From TrEMBL:
<dbReference type="GO" id="GO:0046872">
    <property type="term" value="F:metal ion binding"/>
</dbReference>
<feature type="domain" description="Prenyltransferase alpha-alpha toroid">
    <location>
        <begin position="3"/>
        <end position="367"/>
    </location>
</feature>
<dbReference type="InterPro" id="IPR008930">
    <property type="entry name" value="Terpenoid_cyclase/PrenylTrfase"/>
</dbReference>
<keyword id="KW-0677">Repeat</keyword>
<dbReference type="InterPro" id="IPR045089">
    <property type="entry name" value="PGGT1B-like"/>
</dbReference>
<dbReference type="InterPro" id="IPR001330">
    <property type="entry name" value="Prenyltrans"/>
</dbReference>
<dbReference type="GO" id="GO:0005953">
    <property type="term" value="C:CAAX-protein geranylgeranyltransferase complex"/>
</dbReference>
<keyword id="KW-0479">Metal-binding</keyword>
<keyword id="KW-0808">Transferase</keyword>
<keyword id="KW-0862">Zinc</keyword>
<dbReference type="Pfam" id="PF00432">
    <property type="entry name" value="Prenyltrans"/>
</dbReference>
<comment type="similarity">
    <text>Belongs to the protein prenyltransferase subunit beta family.</text>
</comment>
<protein>
    <submittedName>
        <fullName>Terpenoid cyclases/Protein prenyltransferase</fullName>
    </submittedName>
</protein>
<dbReference type="GO" id="GO:0004662">
    <property type="term" value="F:CAAX-protein geranylgeranyltransferase activity"/>
</dbReference>
<keyword id="KW-0637">Prenyltransferase</keyword>
Amino acid sequence: MALNCAKQKTYWLRCLKTFLPNGYTSMDSNRMMIACFIISALDILSALDASMTTDERSSYIEWIYASQQDTGGFQGFPRTPDANPEPNDSHSDARLTIIWEPATVPSTFFALAALLLLRDDFSRVGRRECLTWLTKCQRADCSFGQNLNDKGEVDGGYDTRFGYLAMHIRWMLGGDLLATQEPAWPDVNIDGLVRSIRALQAYDGGFGDLPCSEPHGGYTNCAVNALAIVDKLADGIPDEDALIHWLVLRQTRQFEPDNEDDEDEDEEQGGFATATTSSAIGFNGRCNKIADTCYTWWICDTLKTLGQIELIDKSKATSYLLNKTQHFIGGFGKYPSDPPDIYHSYLGLAALGILGCPDVKPVHSTTSISVDAVDYLEKVIRPGYS
């Protein structure tokens, strides 16, 4: 049971330095997320500094700032300088029109996190513009959307992901410190957000995307961590005991067997092995689902935030990642025997940082980036806002 650090570093360096597989071209509008995961993975593996030259680091920082919008926030990929060229002589009636992506809450979070990991000082971040834009992304019911459309209306889902990301943007930009300064800085409605999150806890303890909907591990993590980053855990969770009970029940041995030993073990236990007999136990995100690499992060991190991570079997959770979904070329697959992808590979590494794996840096609960990076934010950047 060990992390193959050499293969992991090779996988992430390949993602950083070469073209990504064709399957990622459909994610062009999410390049900022992909870039952040790659940079952060190398940081967690203590390989970030060695993976780039000073000039490369500067070019990555410039690439991120090229996505910043004058009205606040970052879009998912850099702007195109010649987005609307004039028609040429041979095609006088043709005019290429490229609609720039709006700034989005997720892309802004990932851009700021990537700048932080690259040890930028945020001196070029339009903080007032960004924090003003963030207040406009909050709906009348105090939930957050993904972006503003061309009419200035809030677009996107109603689930807790956007509230989570918005609160972390506010924290990284020192919005909690700046709101009390003169002249006053704009701030979001924290109490209203807490009320909107409270309404999402289901009867069995987890949080869904809408009131009375099925609870989900990812939405639950975002709800709890949004509350934690604004110090409102006590106010925002109606039934913490039920929440903890629901989270602990997500640890499951049910996953696709990938060798004969697993099949024999499954047969002996009537279809799936119990926690006492299995050496690897993953997590699912909803009742009656099989284990999935990413939910080791979503569930374990939530329990870490609540101070209850010792209630799960950390050794068997670690074994699930290292022995079942870690891929021989590096990275992690969604399920055992699946090829690695950037999303599951990153959350697999982050989960190991929460679980205390000695081969990776400790990961900060609520943010999914290293404790080192958060320390830099708290000691170098945020003091300048006060």
